[in-house]
Amino acid sequence: MTAVFGLSHKDGKAFARTGGHEQVVFCSDERSGLYAIIAIHSTALGPSLGGTRFYPYADENEALADVLRLSRAMSYKNALAGLDLGGGKAVIIGDPAKDKNEALLRAYGRFVQSLGGRYITACDVGTYSEDMDVVARECDYVTGRTVAHGGAGDSSILTAFGVFQGMRASAQHVYGTPSLRGRRVGIEGVGKVGAKLADHLLEDGAEVVVCDVDERAVARLRERHPQVEVVADTDALIASDIDVYAPCALGGVLDDDRVSKLEAKIVCGAANNQLAHPGVEKRLAERGVLYAPDYVVNAGGVIQVADEIEGFSMERARARAERIFDTTLKIFAIAGEEGVPPGVAADRLAERRMSEVGRLRGIWLHR
Asked: One matching Pfam family, short form (predicted)?
C-alpha cells in the first residue's frame, strides 16, 4: 500500500471512519513543496466549505487528525449558520513564513479544482485573502478573496460581530438582559478577531481585560482603547474577577484545572475547540458556568465568505450573522428542555438540519 508522505492510505481510511467523513484527499507536489490534506466531512447540505490552514505540524498524523476534526466542525458550523453548505477543511503542512510561494498555492488550487466543486476553500490560520487570489488563478472554488477581486476581504469583521451576538445571547440567558454594560469581560488573544470583539464590547459599555503572548497586539489595542486592562497570561485572566471569559486564541485552553479556577459565569469566544477534552463542558455546568458552543458563535466569518458565492453583500452577510443571537438562545433553550449541555444541544440541532434537509437531496430534480 503506497504511503503518502509517511502516512498510509489505510491509516487515513481508519481516521476517516471515526468521524464519518465522505472523502479525504492527500495532495503532493514536491517541486513546489506542497504537502496538503483536504477533508470533506459532509455534503448533505451542499458543497463543503472550509478554510485552508497553513501550519508547521509536527508530523503527518497530527495534520490528518487536525483536518478531520476541523472539517467535521465545519459541517456543524455551516448547518447552524443556516447555510446550504457542507463541511470541509484543508491543511498545508509547512511554515507559511518560509514555505509559502506562488507555485505552491497554485498547485494547491489545482488540487481543489480537481474535486469539481465538492470542496470550496477560504482563508484560515496561515493563509490570507491575498493567498486566495493566487489559489483562484487555478481554481473556481475559492472564497475569502480580496475586495479588489470581488471578495469579502477580512472575515474577522463578522467573526467578531457574531461572537458579540453570541455573548449578548449568553448575557440574556444568565442576566436577563442582552447588554454587556457594566460587565467585566476577559479576552484571551487580541489579534484581528479579539481586538474587534473588544471594540464591540467597549461600545456596549463593558469593561475589558485582556492577555496576549504578542505584546504588539496588546499595544495596538491600547492605542485605541487605553482603558483596557492587561494581565500577564491566560491563567491570570481565568482567575481574575471577570463575568465573561472570551477565548480568542488557540484551542484546548479550558481543561479541568482551569475550569476549577474560572471566576466567569459565561464562556463565549472565537477560538475553535476551546475545551481540552470531552467532559469539560459538564465540569463547567457543575460550576454554574454557561458555555456558548464555539462553532455556533464564531460562525460570522464563514457566513461572510460564503456570501461571496452569491456575489458579496456586507449588508446581507451582517444580517445573517446577526441571527447568531437567536440561534444561541435557541440552543440554550433546547439544552434546558432536554437536560443536556449546550454543546450537545447544538450538535443535535445541527444534525437534525443535516438529516432533514439532506434527505431532500434524494428527491430527483430535472435540471
From this structure: ELFV_dehydrog_N
